[in-house]
C-alpha cells in the first residue's frame, strides 16, 4: 500500500511538472500570436470600418476614451467619467483590462517607455478644491488630450442602435433588440401576472443566457410554484437577445441598471428571491446589497469567490485564479484564452459567434439533434466586446468588493442564503463556496457529487427545481 501511495504521488508530481512545462511553451506562443493579431486587426478595422480602433494591449486609456467616456486616475485607482445631459456618473473599471503580465507585454512596455522618454507627454491637470470644515482638500486628476476633443462635441454621438462591427454576428436573433425602441434586457417571464405571492429573478453565468434556466427549471416547477411565483429569467447585457451596445464597457453599474430597468421597475418587484450561477452570483450579491429589504432568499451556484492575500492585488489575484494560464484542465485553458488574450479571444468570437448558424447546423447534423441546443445559444450569442469587458469588469474588477458585499449580506440582510456547488467543478473549485460561508456563517452549502460547473443544473433540473421550491417556501414562512 505504501509503495502504491508513493507511486501515485510521483505520477501526480510528474503530471504537474509536464503541465507546467507545456503550459509555459504554449502560452509563450499565444503571447506572441496575440501581439501580432493586434496589428492585424488594426489594419483590418481600418480598411473595413475606416477607423483605427485602439486596444488595451497598446493603451488602455485610448480604448476607454474612444468609447465616449473619460478616464480619470486618482490615488492609483481608475474610474470612468460619463457625461450626460443631467449628471456626471462614475464607473469603476478593472486594471486587468490593460495589465496582464506576459513576456511579450513586458518587452513591449519597456520599448514604449523608452520611446516616450524622447517626447513630452501632453497632459492637462485639473485641480479640485473641496472645502470641508474650514479646511481645503486638494485632489489632482490627470486627463489626456482626448478630454478636450470630447467636450467639443464628440460625446453623445453614439447611435441608439449602433451597427454591429464587421467581426460580430448580424443575424436577426443576435440583433433582435435593435427592433425595439426600448433599451431593456430580454426577459422571459412566467407565472401569474397579478396576485403573485413573490417574484424570483434568475441570473445566468458568463457566456450563457436565460435559456440556461427556462429550458431546464421552468418546465419542471410544480403547478403550485407556477401559480404562486412570477419567474423572471434575463439575458444579461451583451448576451443572448439582450442589447449589445458597441460603446459599452459593461461595468457593474451598467449591468445593475439594466436589471433594474428591465425587471424591478417595470414589473414593480417588491419582494423577490434570487437564483444566480457563477458570474451571476456577483451581480446577485450587489443587487441584494442594494435592495436589502426586498430579497427573501439568495441561492448561489458556484460563486467565484477567491479571497486575496493581503500582499496581493485582488483583481490580479482573481484573474490568475480563474485563468491560471495552464493547458489542463481544458476548462481552465479556455478561461485563460478568454481572459488573457484580447485579440485571440476576438478571433474565436469571429470564428464561432459570427458563424454560429453554421456551427448549430453542424452540431445538429452530427448529433442528429440530440445535443442540448439551448447551451449553444448561450455560448454563441454574444459579442467579443461584451464578453471581454464583462469578464474583466465584473469577475476580476469586483474582486476587491466581494468581501464588502458578503459582509453586508451577513449583517444587513435576514434572508436565507443557500449555496450549491458541483464536486467536480474544475473552473470554480468547491473551496470558493466554503470561503463564502466563512463570511456568511448562516449560509447552507450543498455539494453535489459527480457534478461540475454546468451539470450542477443541467441533468438534475427536476431535483434542483424541488430544492428551490423548498427554499422559497421556507423563506416565505
From TrEMBL:
The chain crosses the membrane at residues 21-44. Keywords: Membrane, Transmembrane, Transmembrane helix. InterPro entries: AB_hydrolase_1, AB_hydrolase_fold. The keyword Transmembrane applies. The keyword ATP-binding does not apply. It comes from the Eukaryota. Pfam families: Abhydrolase_1. Residues 200-320 form the AB hydrolase-1 domain. PANTHER family: HYDROLASE (PTHR43689), LYSOPHOSPHOLIPASE BODYGUARD 3-RELATED (PTHR43689:SF9). This is AB hydrolase-1 domain-containing protein. It comes from Quercus lobata (Valley oak). The lineage of its organism: Eukaryota, Viridiplantae, Streptophyta, Embryophyta, Tracheophyta.
Amino acid at each position: 500500500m505504501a509503495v502504491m501511495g508513493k507511486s501515485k504521488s510521483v505520477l501526480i508530481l510528474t503530471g504537474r511538472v509536464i503541465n507546467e512545462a507545456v503550459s509555459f511553451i504554449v502560452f509563450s506562443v499565444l503571447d506572441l500570436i496575440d501581439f501580432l493579431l493586434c496589428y492585424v486587426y488594426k489594419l483590418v478595422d481600418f480598411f473595413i470600418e475606416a477607423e483605427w480602433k485602439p486596444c488595451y494591449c497598446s493603451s488602455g486609456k485610448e480604448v476607454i476614451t474612444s468609447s465616449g467616456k473619460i478616464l480619470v486616475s486618482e490615488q492609483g485607482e481608475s474610474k470612468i467619467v460619463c457625461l450626460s445631459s443631467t449628471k456626471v456618473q462614475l464607473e469603476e473599471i478593472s486594471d486587468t483590462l490593460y495589465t496582464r503580465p506576459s513576456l511579450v507585454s513586458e518587452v513591449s512596455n519597456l520599448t514604449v517607455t523608452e520611446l516616450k522618454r524622447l517626447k513630452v507627454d501632453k497632459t492637462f491637470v485639473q485641480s479640485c478644491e473641496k472645502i470641508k470644515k474650514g479646511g481645503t482638500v486638494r485632489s489632482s486628476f490627470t486627463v489626456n488630450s482626448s478630454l478636450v476633443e470630447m467636450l467639443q462635441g464628440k460625446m453623445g454621438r453614439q447611435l441608439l442602435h449602433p451597427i454591429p462591427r464587421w467581426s460580430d454576428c448580424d443575424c436577426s436573433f443576435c440583433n433582435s433588440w435593435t427592433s425595439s425602441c426600448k433599451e431593456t434586457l430580454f426577459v422571459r417571464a412566467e407565472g401569474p401576472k397579478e396576485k403573485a405571492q413573490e417574484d424570483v429573478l434568475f441570473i445566468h453565468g458568463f457566456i450563457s443566457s436565460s435559456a440556461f434556466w427556462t429550458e431546464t427549471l421552468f418546465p419542471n416547477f410544480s403547478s403550485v410554484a407556477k401559480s404562486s411565483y412570477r419567474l423572471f429569467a434575463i439575458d444579461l447585457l451583451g448576451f443572448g437577445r439582450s442589447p449589445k451596445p458597441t460603446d459599452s464597457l459593461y461595468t457593474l453599474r451598467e449591468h445593475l441598471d439594466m436589471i433594474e430597468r428591465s425587471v424591478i421597475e417595470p414589473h414593480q418587484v417588491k419582494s423577490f428571491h434570487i437564483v444566480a450561477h457563477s458570474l451571476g452570483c456577483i451581480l446577485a450579491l450587489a443587487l441584494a446589497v442594494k435592495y436589502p429589504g426586498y430579497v427573501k432568499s439568495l441561492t448561489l451556484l458556484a460563486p467565484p469567490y477567491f479571497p486575496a492575500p493581503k500582499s496581493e492585488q485582488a483583481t490580479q489575484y482573481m484573474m490568475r485564479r480563474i485563468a491560471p494560464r495552464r493547458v489542463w484542465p481544458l476548462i481552465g485553458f479556455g478561461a485563460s484564452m478568454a481572459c488573457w488574450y484580447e485579440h485571440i479571444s476576438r478571433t474565436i468570437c469571429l470564428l464561432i459567434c459570427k458563424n454560429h448558424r453554421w456551427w448549430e447546423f453542424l452540431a445538429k447534423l452530427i448529433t442528429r439533434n440530440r445535443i442540448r441546443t439551448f447551451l449553444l445559444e448561450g455560448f454563441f450569442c454574444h459579442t467579443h466586446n461584451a464578453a471581454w469587458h464583462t469578464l474583466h469588469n465584473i469577475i476580476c474588477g469586483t474582486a476587491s468588493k466581494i468581501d464588502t458585499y458578503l459582509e453586508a449580506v451577513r449583517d444587513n440582510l435576514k434572508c436565507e442564503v443557500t449555496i450549491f456547488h458541483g464536486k467536480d467543478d474544475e473552473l470554480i473549485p468547491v473551496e470558493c463556496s466554503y470561503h463564502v460561508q466563512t463570511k456568511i456563517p448562516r449560509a447552507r452549502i450543498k455539494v453535489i457529487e459527480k457534478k461540475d460547473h454546468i451539470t450542477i443544473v443541467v441533468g438534475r433540473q427536476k431535483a434542483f427545481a424541488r430544492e428551490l421550491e423548498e427554499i422559497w417556501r421556507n423563506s416565505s414562512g
